């Protein structure tokens, strides 16, 4: 059987486009997991991780929260380390240290300037297939 060069090229292009797509879990990790994050690193982390509103304008995201824990610990919220709320939302059974970065200027990416604040709330995550896919909100009450 003979494989044509154009067919091989097409397959390579298609596989490259699929592998460059970011899964919802990968996007969650990029945008919200920061075990080494601190309140002074907001500008750098948000710029380096390309966190902004989607679209050609790339407006600065008004607020972004980084969870100061590793992926394995955060994943437990979607299972034994969390309590099911409504739909696919789970609230952590224990508080997590987080850094919340709030936008100081209404500029366009990459010129976003943020002020970071540290807190230790319970977190609420949207989960899909046992994996976190969205940071919903913080909840101080238990």
Note down, in words, how this protein is organized.
With 142 residues, this protein is of the alpha+beta class. The protein contains 4 helices and 7 strands; from the N terminus they run αααβαββββββ. The protein starts with a helix and ends with a strand. The relative contact order is 0.19. The N terminus is likely disordered.
Give a concise summary.
The protein has helices at 5-19, 24-32, 42-48, 71-75, and strands at residues 63-67, 82-84, 89-92, 98-103, 114-119, 122-128, 131-139. With 142 residues, it is α+β, with helices and mostly antiparallel strands. It has a single domain (24-139), classed as Roll (P-30 Protein), CATH 3.10.130.10.
SSE layout and pairing:
Layout: H1 5-19, H2 24-32, H3 42-48, E1 63-67, H4 71-75, E2 82-84, E3 89-92, E4 98-103, E5 114-119, E6 122-128, E7 131-139
Antiparallel strand pairs: 1-4, 2-3, 3-6, 4-5, 6-7
């Amino acid at each position: 059987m003979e494989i044509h060069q154009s067919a091989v090229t097409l397959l390579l292009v298609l596989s490259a486009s699929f592998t460059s797509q970011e899964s919802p879990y990968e996007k969650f990790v990029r945008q919200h997991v920061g075990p080494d994050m601190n309140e002074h690193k907001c500008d750098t982390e948000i710029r380096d991780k390309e966190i902004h509103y989607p679209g050609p304008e790339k407006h600065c995201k008004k607020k972004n929260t980084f969870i100061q824990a590793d992926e394995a610990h955060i994943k437990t919220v979607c299972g034994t380390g969390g309590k099911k709320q409504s739909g696919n939302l789970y609230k952590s059974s224990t508080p997590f240290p987080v850094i919340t970065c709030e936008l100081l200027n209404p500029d366009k990416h990459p010129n976003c300037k943020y002020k970071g604040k540290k807190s230790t709330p319970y977190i609420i995550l949207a989960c899909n297939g046992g994996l976190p896919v969205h940071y919903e909100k913080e909840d101080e009450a238990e």
